[in-house]
Amino acid sequence: MPNTPGAHPHFNDRGAVRWYTSLADGLAAARGECKKVFIELGRAA
């Protein structure tokens, strides 16, 4: 099931970036637009 890009999953970044929670979907979107990927990794507190 494709992941729809959207808001940051943990805080309001006011739409500065389209965030993906699926690495595969994010990589595919970046590849299609010839963009680099930023990976944010963390854990829920």
Percentage of residues in helical conformation: 10-25%
Structure class: mainly alpha
Instruction: Name the shape in a single word.
Output: globular
Mean pLDDT: 82
- Number of helical segments with 4 or more residues: 1
Rounded radius of gyration (Å): 11 Å
Number of domains: 1
- Report, as a whole number of angstroms, the end-to-end distance: 27 Å
* Major sheet description: none
The unreliable regions are none
Question: How do the helices and strands follow one another from N- to C-terminus?
Answer: H
Number of strands: 0
Beta content comes to under 5%
What are the defining features of this structure?
45 residues; mainly alpha; 1 helix; globular
